[in-house]
Design goal:
Blueprint (H helix, E strand, L loop, with lengths): L18 E4 L6 E2 L1 H14 L7 H4 L7 H9 L5 H22 L5 E2 L3 H10 L3 E5 L4 H10 L8 E3 L12 H10 L6 E5 L2 H10 L2 E4 L22 H12 L4
Parallel strand pairs: 1-4, 1-6, 4-5, 6-7
Antiparallel strand pairs: 2-3
Helix pairs in contact: 1-4, 3-4, 5-9
């Protein structure tokens, strides 16, 4: 039996936390097999070689456009890949819409963590680079959509993570200051967006992070699960003597 890894307790230096902004892919739901199936449906129609989960996880986290460009790059000459991009993106979105949620799994302690945060009085938002309609479908499938007062997708605003705009917008909609918010995700994109917005940041170790080690992410700490994130936040909320 594999031992559960332990990490140093996160240290927050900011004010009392009033809200949490949580990523979706790689943080709440393992969606890599959905991405792989959707991409292979696309690649078959482009007469290109299949991809694999191992390749796909290196590209996840920067939105559908980046995912498509990354998969096309090793399969077509640069100019041809650019010429096929619009067609490929349209095919992929159609293929993905057929299978969204089919090959996914919820990570352990996700709902327990969300419930603990909500019960502690935190406002919750989901900010993802996934198109919003797909994000809402997944959250609904797993019975999680009701925990969030705000859901922002990669197509909701003019910019997506790592730009801070989605994080700042989520705070505005929740009516909380970024300095009283923690961003929780599995990748450098999540931490960069949170830091740029002036938030505390937490990282989970089990997601994708573009194929890089979680230890490479600059955040306020690594938490083994969303439930551990809730516990770390609760510890920070303890009144100072």
């Amino acid at each position: 039996m594999t031992a559960t890894p332990t990490f140093p307790a996160p240290v927050f230096s900011g004010p009392r936390i009033e809200a949490a902004i949580i990523d979706l892919d790689g943080t709440m739901v393992d969606t890599a097999d959905d991405f792989t199936a959707g991409l292979n449906g696309m690649l078959a129609q482009l007469d290109a070689a299949e991809t694999s989960r191992e390749e796909v996880v290196e590209y996840v986290g920067k939105g559908s456009e980046h995912l498509i460009r990354s998969v096309l790059a090793p399969r077509f000459e640069a100019e041809h890949a650019q010429d096929r991009f619009d067609e490929a993106l349209a095919i992929y979105q159609e293929e993905y819409s057929k299978i969204n949620g089919t090959h996914t799994r919820l990570y352990p302690d996700v709902e327990a963590g969300l419930k603990a945060m909500r019960d502690a009085g935190l406002k919750l938002a989901c900010v993802t680079n996934k198109p919003r309609r797909f994000a809402v479908q997944l959250l609904t499938q797993y019975g999680l959509v009701g925990y969030f007062s705000v859901v922002i997708g990669g197509d909701t605003l003019a910019k997506k993570k790592p730009d801070p705009l989605p994080m700042i917008t989520a705070c505005a909609e929740m009516q909380v200051a970024p300095q009283a918010t923690v961003a929780i995700g599995d990748s450098e994109n999540d931490a960069m967006a949170g830091r740029a917005a002036g938030m505390a940041t937490l990282t989970v170790p089990y997601g994708y992070n573009h194929g890089q080690s979680v230890q490479t992410i600059k955040s306020d700490g690594i938490v083994a699960s969303l439930l551990d994130a809730a516990k770390a936040i609760a510890a920070h909320q303890s009144p100072t003597l």
